[in-house]
């Protein structure tokens, strides 16, 4: 397999040189942070009065964590480290949980952000001749615009389609012979389920790759999208606070996501004790951004659960990789005292060929107990008039789920297209317990 790089020097840099670069950039980040209202008070309390108080990368552990709540409380400019007039771009998080938070970039920050995003798409084998249909939402959300810039920087023809309007998406895919799509995994599945309705014949399309991200999804969902569309699907992870997509991307080997470590320092911590964990162990991802002067963020707690993959990737990049996200620390459900991640449920059902492209998890109160309902769409072929077949399928799903999560759910089978779809991030869980 031929490996292409955007910036081979930095992508294959030795660990020693990379760590020296990280330290230098961390110092710059800390000196920027000291200029902000937020860190200007916090860092000196920890004995960090200037960047020179940092002697080695290990000193990072003496710096305080930053949380989403800190960002909210600093809204709008409490973390701004440059004069407002130097800011050329702002973004806000989509607010999946709570009120939005904002980030700022100078022109140099934006160029650095675009550069690493270009590295990410090149790592998947994208070329300047590709036609890139960007189905992520454009707007305050980083997901759409940031990858747009990275793709354009490579020289791809970018179609800023944004999300929604399925009919128009298909039409553009056909008319412009789109070769790469960027979308949420749930939208890729949904789009495929509507192909026949819009009279689209896969032979009319030229699709080769999809970049999917913005929401948790299992390896089985990736495989399902690959199988349905006959393409390569790459996982992309990012968050607005850290400039959005481009931060972690799979390369052609599709074996976990490289994090550009000259731009980010990653740590995995135990979310309860806050102690750092060694490579390979699962915990909460904590990130420090190194290439943003306008708004430094130090040891930001992402609340996302994952692990660092030890060892080097076959592509030759020395930047370490992150495993697929297990979910967020705050999306764990406690059902009758048992901890359940929605990703565990997805993993089980998406492995079953009869299960279609959409599902919904509902948790309700049933007297003193909790009731877990898993609603799944099933494929057109599996939707038969034979109630015995349907009953058997339902029982099999119940048994597989019970074996995995130890709780016996109620399973409901629905026709394809019957469950609600959302344009942005999919809403897979309805916890109706709080409302009662
Ligand atoms: P919000 O916190 O408002 O949803 P963002 O729109 O920035 O803000 O979303 C970032 C979050 O989306 C991440 O912290 C993570 O939980 C989730 N996410 C993004 N990409 C992926 C991915 N590839 N796999 C799993 N989760 C993802
Ligand atoms: Zn690789």
From TrEMBL:
Presence of the UniProt keyword Nucleus in the record: no
Catalytic activity: 2-phenylacetate + ATP + CoA = phenylacetyl-CoA + AMP + diphosphate
Single Gene Ontology MF annotation: nucleotide binding
GO biological processes: phenylacetate catabolic process
AMP-dependent synthetase/ligase domain location: 82-287
UniProt cross-references to Pfam families, sorted A to Z: AMP-binding (PF00501), AMP-binding_C_2 (PF14535)
Entry keywords, A to Z: Ligase, Nucleotide-binding, Phosphopantetheine, Phosphoprotein
Domain AMP-dependent ligase C-terminal per the UniProt entry, residue ranges: 337-433
Entry's EC annotation: 6.2.1.30
InterPro entries: Adenylate-forming_Reductase, AMP-bd_C_sf, AMP-dep_Lig_C, AMP-dep_synth/lig_dom, ANL_N_sf, PA_CoA_ligase
Domain of life: Bacteria
Pathway: Aromatic compound metabolism; phenylacetate degradation
Role this protein plays: Catalyzes the activation of phenylacetic acid (PA) to phenylacetyl-CoA (PA-CoA).
Subunit field text: Monomer.
Protein family according to the UniProt entry: Belongs to the phenylacetyl-CoA ligase family.
Protein name as annotated: Phenylacetate-coenzyme A ligase
